Amino acid sequence: MASVSELYDVTWEEMRDKLRKWREENYRNSEQIVDVGEELINEHASKLGDDIWIIYEQVMIAALDCSRDDLAWSCLQELKRQFPDSHRVKRLAGMRLEALERYDDANKLYDSILQDDPTNTAARKRKISILRAQGKSSEAIRELNEYLEQCVCVTYLFRYVLFLSSALSSYAKAAFCLEELMMTNPHNHLYCEQYAEVKYTQGGLENLELARKYFAQALKLNNRNMRALFGLYMSASHIAGSPKVSAKVKKDNVKYAAWAASQINRAYQLAGRGKKENKCSMKAVEEMLESMQITMS
Amino acid sequence: MPLTTQAYCKMLLHAAKYPHCAVNGILVAEKQKEKKKEGHTSTILCVDCVPLFHGTLALAPMLEVALTLIDTWCKENKYVIAGYYQANERIKEVRPNQVAEKVAARISENFSEAAMIILDSSRFTMGCFTPILSIYDHLDNKWKCRDPSTDSFEDWTEAQKITSALLESRSYENLIDFDNHLDDLRNDWTNPEINKSVLHLC
């Protein structure tokens, strides 16, 4: 089998930089990380300097994702040798136990970390992940709520509760999380857009209007967010089509929907430039927009 | 309602692309006319699927957009939205959840023989030697489970061979779902390239 460097004609430095990019942007492309990382470790370890330790960590986690216990084990051994008493490495050992579904053993490891260092967020997070893996989502949410009461401003925890809440269709909780996230991250268009989606899903005229406002806000923060654009279109159309709104509200929403429709068409036209196959998407969008116009008027 | 190789293949590729997420999608069907001695009879064949989302499956607006667009596309191609598939996030969960039942129920409003398919990731192997799905039919307002047989496929041997081949060649890296399309409109959720690969291997 050809090596990565041969297949893609890349140097070891490019491979190392790619790993860094994936690490910094939190990609979960585990198969690729294993391919690139394994080769880097096997062929170029001596050139990597101190970077090698964080690469071992990254590759180990990716290896767990790909059921490559052999690779995960050897990375873990290297890290244990270099950092014998590290909590960070202990957590990795715990993750390996989780991958092997040895949850009790993993929990014991995390508990020992927390005994030493009760503020260790990584260990708390892993314990909650175990609950989730075991299908105990309600318990996981309970633990998270307890944890949130003790900590201030932990974005990732809110995201976690959000994720779980959405999975359990607990929209009110999801909305609450997103409100907190929007407060601490006012420029993040994704939170705005997700909040709008949750409100829309909850349904009812008031929620639709809120949804429309937040889709619009998301677009202000990032005018290329297609979900926000579609969402604006859908919510405005539904409001305009509702028998419960005043003539003025209807007129305003027809305007918003029309604006959104033109932007959507424009986006598809830009995307479809020079590509014959995309014409089908464009046509489908045009028809969708037309058919909704009929229900609005 | 039997599945073609293309439909089965793309469902599995979708699940393979996002092993750590729940995934879902729509099944589309076409009426096939068969000549028999007594005249024409038509059977319905599930010819294709459109992968929808990965990760959070339960939010309404994008689902509505997707269903409307797919509906339009179906009408152009004389297809009909005929079913819904889902693979749960946890491999041990092999039953449909609220989201699955809601969407599938909505589909069955427009197509009475709609099927709901839940993929069983715990039996997912590269060789694909057994079909890894449970099929649910809507009977008496409930979803009743039925195990797949070779009748559930247009050609099981072909489906098994081609799906396995595409998994080996990591074709799932190129599979486009509706989420990918919303991230970049140039991504084509009809997956023409993968369709070509399937045809090529037939």
Produce a short descriptive summary.
The complex is a heterodimer of chains A (297) and B (202). Chain A has 297 residues and is mostly helical.
Task: Describe the protein.
The complex is a heterodimer of chains A (297) and B (202). Chain A is mostly helical and 297 residues long. Chain A contains 16 helices and no strands. Chain A is globular, with a radius of gyration of 24 Å. With 202 residues, chain B is of the alpha+beta class. Chain B is 36% helix and 27% strand. Chain B has six helices and six strands, in the order αββαβαβββααα. Chain B has helices at residues 5-17, 60-76, 98-110, 156-168, 178-183, 192-201; strands at 23-36, 39-54, 80-87, 115-119, 133-139, 142-146. Chain B has a six-stranded mixed sheet with strand order 2-1-3-4-5-6. In chain B, strand 1 and strand 2 form a beta hairpin. In chain B, helix 1 (5-17) packs parallel to helix 4 and helix 1 packs across helix 6 (192-201). The longest helix of chain B is centred in the middle third of the chain and has 17 residues, at 60-76. The radius of gyration of chain B is 16 Å and the shape is globular. At the A-B interface, helix 10, helix 12, helix 14, helix 15 and helix 16 of A face helix 2 and helix 5 of B.
